[in-house]
Amino acid sequence: AQSVTQPDIHITVSEGASLELRCNYSYGATPYLFWYVQSPGQGLQLLLKYFSGDTLVQGIKGFEAEFKRSQSSFNLRKPSVHWSDAAEYFCAVGRSGGGADGLTFGKGTHLIIQP
Amino acid sequence: NAGVTQTPKFRVLKTGQSMTLLCAQDMNHEYMYWYRQDPGMGLRLIHYSVGEGTTAKGEVPDGYNVSRLKKQNFLLGLESAAPSQTSVYFCASSYSLDRKHSNQPQHFGDGTRLSIL
To answer: Hey, is the C-beta of A40 within 8 angstroms of any chain B C-beta?
Structure first.
């Protein structure tokens, strides 16, 4: 069965510093991978997705992620964080192929931004 | 431009009561989903539907029932609420995975916060 691991429950970064959030997945075939962000009391907003092709994916709000099949990873990066980036971040994989039968989520990483 | 709308946004129930959560989407999506979110657990899939009149179980279906009588609506029912069902419930929808829509992601509602006393 597919699974997603986000090793870091909390991460604290200074404003203006670079960010990398880790995500490892387990899936037999080529995965469909997603990163979502959730602000307190809000729903989930899609940051970016990987289906196929170029392994470096650009998303909204200056985020990017790189798919590395050999490491089963899909880490999220941002070169310079802003205080407004403080939120919960979720990595997800399609339960089968493109996710027609839903997504499997990691447990999330809580991002704290220090002034 | 509503997207995915969940009703109600908040609800408090007593153990044993029943209720229905409504999800409505105006994007003509084929697929719809119900997830629950608990602290430290991420989101877990309860049930899903790949089209009008069809439903299927997800990871944590026990204690819930669903119906998809109309394409735009997906209802989640709790027949006899239990404190373990206290959670935030999210509905999502997406297009089918034909070639035209194969790269379309899921769209989420803003959630329903449900407390069972």
So the answer is: no
